[in-house]
Automatic annotation (TrEMBL):
The keyword Signal applies. Pfam families: Metal_resist (PF13801). It comes from Novosphingobium malaysiense. It comes from the Bacteria. Keywords: Signal. The lineage of its organism: Bacteria, Pseudomonadati, Pseudomonadota, Alphaproteobacteria, Sphingomonadales. Residues 1-25 form the signal peptide. This is Heavy metal resistance protein. Gene3D superfamilies: 1.20.120.1490.
Amino acid sequence: MKISGFQLLLAILLAVAAGCIGAFAANEWRQSSHPQTLHDFVHDELDLDAEQNSRLEQLETSFAVERKELDLSLRAANVRLAAAMDEEHDYGPKVAAAIDDVHARMGDLQKVTVRHVFAMRALLDPEQQRRFDHQVALSLTGEPGE
């Protein structure tokens, strides 16, 4: 039985949809275990003063724009991967290049996020930084840092 290009594309789209649903479910489960995001922690637990709040809002606004651009870039890279898979029907050079592109976009997003975390940390006083560092370690590993 020969699989048509349409059937392959449909299978890819269904796999992506299933992956998204799984990621959403995992995120919901994780949030039930650790319901507080890093931003929530900073706002709710660190008793920021007015200046810190103002500077944090500026950082968050800038980060939101940058993150949205990177999210769109990652989605576009995934579309190119789907097209390469549909074209080659094998792990060929176009698929390999498209995968590298997806990984590069993911890396860009992670780098921007880590820079944002350090920018938030720079707004804090030493005691707030200690608590922040503990929360970052917990967020990344599920275990408190030292």
